[in-house]
Design a protein that fits this description.
It contains 15 helices and ten strands. The chain is an alpha/beta fold. Helix 5 packs parallel to helix 9.
Length: 345
């Protein structure tokens, strides 16, 4: 790297045991990368063929930098380390299983020249095998938007739900390294904490054109999904002091698990059961009466909750119906599994 000029953009990927997918991600990046781009892959002690896959792309594009950790530090710590190791003026926090559109880097490079503090890149959502589009764009914007430092509340309300996806973030590296990061280790969403802990010093751009294809329902933390969305995410959102309390209340309940329909949705997905009730809900409720509803939901037969959710998708079509349907079909309670098992027998 010493013989090469400093890159403008560092695409930072934290990965672990994604040898079966990271090659596709790197292919979508390397195919369009140039001398102003580097790719930093920080490996949290993979035990599969991730090192060999990354090496193939390093041979094709010398600005692929592979950093292997002796232990898995977790997604937040590993992304932070990747940014620390980066050389670029801006860092794109790219996921290890999603794909860039052919013009993505070119489009972001044009935006970088306009001196933004933060660039948020829109995405489409596809099925796990990338064969079908579930949402043509996550942010339903018809044109690019800009926000000044005094418009943090508006920016937060418009994008925080989408920003649970880390791959949308392109941030000036100097801003990242000057802010608190360790307090967000273990939150699963360090990027949101870094961005919204205080107002950004400059402007933010949202690129309306989808430049990323998200591989939906492929998260590695599926077993912790209930804990993450019911407790970790709300706790993070409500800790962000760079936005007002009214903005936080607009986008996220502090205790979403108190809503029985929400619990029923997670029951249908197969991620809420008596275990989650005992570990997460019961200790937070002192009244037997208050505990009764969550307990009943945990006891509802999963296949009944799953069928109800599928009927909802069929009767009330909306932009998220496709993703909800995929969630239901990936559930251990999906009624189609029973029919498939009967057909095989």
């Amino acid at each position: 790297m010493t013989s090469q000029r400093q890159p403008t953009l560092s695409i930072c990927i934290a990965t672990r045991n994604r040898g079966n997918l990271i090659g596709e991600t790197l292919e979508s990046i390397v195919a369009q990368a140039n001398a102003d781009t580097e790719i930093v892959v920080l490996d949290g002690a993979s035990t599969d063929d991730t090192p060999a896959i990354v090496e193939q792309y390093r041979l094709r594009f010398p600005r692929v930098r592979y950093i292997r950790q002796s232990a898995n530090g977790g997604v937040d710590k590993d992304f932070d380390r990747a940014v620390d190791a980066a050389s670029g003026e801006y860092c794109w926090l790219m996921s290890d299983d999603d794909l860039l559109a052919p013009t993505a880097i070119e489009t972001v490079m044009r935006a970088i020249k306009r001196d933004f503090s933060l660039i948020v890149v829109n995405a489409e959502v596809r099925t796990r095998d990338m064969s079908r589009v579930l949402e043509s764009q996550r942010l339903v914007f018809t044109s690019d938007r800009e926000y000044g430092p005094k418009a943090m509340d508006s920016l937060f309300v418009d994008i925080i739900e989408y920003m649970s996806f880390i791959g949308c973030v392109v941030i000036r590296r100097s801003i990242w390294v000057e802010r608190e990061r360790e307090r967000y280790y273990g939150s699963q969403f360090i990027h949101a904490g870094v961005i919204f802990q205080q107002p950004l010093p400059g402007r933010t751009l949202i690129i309306a054109q989808p430049l990323i294809s998200i591989r939906y329902a492929n998260a590695v933390w599926k077993s912790k999904e209930f804990e993450i969305w019911m407790f970790k995410w709300p706790s993070l959102v409500w800790s962000l002091e760079g936005v007002s309390e009214s903005a936080r209340a607009t986008v996220c309940r502090l205790e979403p698990w108190r809503k029985l329909t929400t619990l029923l949705f997670y029951r249908a997905k197969g991620t809420y059961s008596l275990d989650e009730y005992r570990n997460w809900i019961k200790p937070r409720m002192t009244s037997r009466t208050a505990r009764l509803g969550p307990l009943i939901v945990a006891l509802v037969p999963g296949f009944i909750a799953n069928i109800a959710a599928l009927l909802y998708c069929a009767c009330f079509s909306n932009r998220s119906a496709g993703m909800i349907r995929v969630d239901m079909m990936n559930s251990p309670y999906y009624v189609g599994n029973w029919f498939n098992a009967r057909a095989r027998s």
